[in-house]
Amino acid sequence: MAAIFSSQPADRILEKALDGNRISPEEALTLYREGDHLKIMATARALREKILPHRYASYTMFRVVNYTNYCNVECSFCSFMDEIGNGKGYVLSTEQILEKMDYAVGEGADQMFLQGGVYPDLSFDYYLDVIVSVKKNIRTCTFALFLLWKSSTWKRLPGLRSRKFFGS
């Protein structure tokens, strides 16, 4: 490709990308530290238009609300959890969760994710209250509320008629 940028290292990296070559992690770091953001955006747009030639691109904005950081699983990759009983963790109230989601909606969020640690001291009623309140109060978003392993934890809660609730 004909040179459209200067001979600066960041510009050479952008030309490499425009020529269809993948950049390395080190080159990406150079762009982050030294690159002209307008040139980076123009390059990104040109590359997107090669793949998707139509004029418009769409984006989504989402919010992840972590309702608790207490957890008894201790996944090796997690730096988020706090050991149950140490007094440093938190559990958000339904009101706090709604407040965080309301703020995100005001900023343009159209998706909400609700996740957190595996904390056996939280009752099924807590989760049910959160789900009902969120669905009642946040009407403009799509939701991913809790993960599959959480629902398998619920099946072990006393008093929950899991067969009726989970349809199994």
Structure characterization notes:
The chain has 168 residues and is mainly α. It folds into 2 domains: 9-51, no CATH class; 62-166, 2-Layer Sandwich (Transcription Regulator spoIIAA), CATH 3.30.750. It is 44% helix and 11% strand. It contains 7 helices and 5 strands; from the N terminus they run αααβββαβαβαα. The protein has helices at 9-18, 25-34, 37-51, 94-106, 124-137, 148-154, 162-166, and strands spanning 62-66, 70-71, 82-83, 111-115, 142-145. It has a 3-stranded parallel β-sheet with strand order 1-4-5, with helices on one face. It has a two-stranded parallel ribbon with strand order 2-3. β4, α5 and β5 form a beta-alpha-beta unit. The termini are far apart. The model has no long low-confidence stretch (mean pLDDT 84).
Whole-number tally of structural domains: 2
User: Please, how many helices?
Assistant: 7
Cα gyration radius (Å):
23 Å
In which range does the helix fraction lie?
40-55%
Spatial strand order of the main sheet: 1-4-5
CATH secondary-structure class of the largest domain: Alpha Beta
Q: In what range is the share of β-strand residues?
A: 5-15%
Q: What's the end-to-end separation, in Å? A: 60 Å
Low-confidence segments, ≥5 residues, pLDDT <50? none
Q: Total number of β-strand segments?
A: 5
Helix/strand class: mainly alpha
The ordered string of helix (H) and strand (E) elements is HHHEEEHEHEHH
What name does CATH use for the topology of the largest domain? Transcription Regulator spoIIAA
Identify the CATH architecture of the largest domain.
Answer: 2-Layer Sandwich
Largest sheet: 3 strands, parallel
Global morphology: elongated
Q: On the 0-100 scale, what is the average pLDDT?
A: 84
